[in-house]
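Researcher: Next entry: Pyrroloquinoline-quinone synthase (Variovorax humicola).
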Amino acid sequence: MTASLANRARPREAARDELQRLWDFDEFEARLRACESRYHIHHRFNQRLNHGELQPFQVRAWVANRFYYQVNIPRKDAAVMSNCDDRAERRRWILRMLDHDGHGSHVGDDAGGIESWSRLAQAVALDPLDLWSHRHVQPGVRFAVDAYVNFARQRPWEEAAISSLTEMFAPRIHADRLAGWPTLYPWIDVEGLAYFRSRIPLATRDVEHGLEVARRWCTTRARQERAIAILHFKLDILWAMLDAIERGFPDDMPLAQRP
Ligand SMILES: O=C(O)c1cc(C(=O)O)c2c(n1)C(=O)C(=O)c1cc(C(=O)O)[nH]c1-2
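Model: Predicted structure:
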């Protein structure tokens, strides 16, 4: 190769090297955290919810639809565990299932997140039959949640662990509800908000574990990029849920159809 050709190839090689360079963990984590801009906290329906702009039936609709997510989270976590061959990791992961399903009366009286969400439903005066039958759940919500469970069933458990990292952004959305709802929605019994309070420390613990898994598993730049793509996929699930809820329960919904 002539000298001038070699000089021209060098920037291309440098660019290729840059594309393959492993991000150090701080940079990788910063890139994961930068995905916050796609979090459903920025969705118009969530903004209306947290600014007190929704009518009671729309709050009930959100609670009813989100319940489908809540009941499927421990099924998703069971799928993650079924794909994990590491006993120490399973011992940690099982806590996520118990957080939602509860520990049962023989181990303290922690009723768990699903029960706690049903108290939220009570506080917003959602009929328990409507809650448990999922009769207000929109097709788009069902598809989105099912896609999350199926992802955890079909992919390596480390990928599923990474998909749970949207929880990095959840403490703020829970804190917003705790701070705003008592004055914005005085008709909601504040006892019903306990679920949101309970999730803040649990989400923080889950994220520490999830980041540990991501750090260990993402040993190549390709895997790091895959982790970002997985996080985008999960953010899309949460976003699609709110799209479906917003569309299904418009401000002028006929009275007879309102939850
Ligand atoms: O209210 C929310 O906005 C919100 C978001 C998320 C999330 O970001 O995935 C979770 C939760 N709540 C939540 O309560 C919860 O238990 C939970 C588990 C997971 C998960 O992916 O395993 N995400 C979330």
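Model: Note for the record: The mean pLDDT is 94.
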